[in-house]
Specification:
Layout: E1 3-6, H1 11-16, E2 21-27, E3 35-40, H2 44-61, H3 69-72, E4 75-81, H4 87-94, E5 101-106, H5 114-125, H6 133-142, H7 152-159, H8 169-188
Parallel strand pairs: 3-4, 4-5
Antiparallel strand pairs: 1-2, 2-3
InterPro entries: ABC-3C_MC1
Pfam families: MComp1
């Protein structure tokens, strides 16, 4: 999955916060819909003064118009500041549970390559592009305590991307069944 730069109506943000540069990214995977607003703030103080107002504007003008429950709970707001952010402010913003998930990053953005830099940052912070699942899978499958002829851990981890994550009753039943099967296998060891 990737996050792609999208054009949406965001003049309500641009007009209210003219010195903050906003961009909007959406997931390319329709099944796991993610929306991400990026606010490039000029300094620490502007982040401190405006983070809650920006969150509120997005909740009113964007989130309230979404019809999918999954989409309305899968919204991120990433603040990127060229200065170091006070750890107490970062904690306050990121742990605020109102409306959407918030991430605060101190990073200088090169204006000539801003789009690629932001996509890379979002890939690491939201999508986990820097995680290496293969090495975890290989280690789990070579552990002598769990290596069997039919390695159930390798099967389970290989099938993990196929497990439905939505809140439908059928999906919940599928997840429950797979967990029960894993527990049965683990108790045999």
């Amino acid at each position: 999955m990737q996050l792609k730069l999208s054009e949406i109506e965001k003049t309500y943000l641009d007009q209210k916060f003219p010195d903050i540069h906003f961009s909007f990214y959406q997931s390319t995977d329709i099944e796991h819909f993610i929306s991400c607003f990026v606010a490039r703030v000029p300094n620490h103080q502007r982040c401190k003064d405006n983070w809650l107002n920006i969150t509120t504007e997005i909740a009113i003008n964007f989130q309230a118009a979404l019809t999918s429950e999954l989409a309305s709970w899968n919204i991120y707001l990433v603040f990127i500041c060229p200065e170091q952010i006070d750890k107490h402010l970062k904690y306050q913003i990121e742990n605020n549970r109102f409306a959407l998930r918030k991430i605060v990053l101190a990073s200088k953005i090169d204006e000539t390559m801003w789009e690629q830099q932001i996509r890379d940052i979002l890939g690491r912070t939201i999508l986990g592009d820097d995680l290496e699942l293969d090495s975890v899978l290989d280690r789990a499958c070579t552990d002598p305590l769990i290596t069997t002829d039919e390695n159930f851990i390798r099967r389970a981890l290989t099938n993990a991307p196929k497990i439905p994550l939505d809140g439908k009753e059928k999906s919940i039943q599928i997840r429950r069944k797979q967990i029960e099967e894993l527990l049965v296998q683990v108790t045999k060891i």
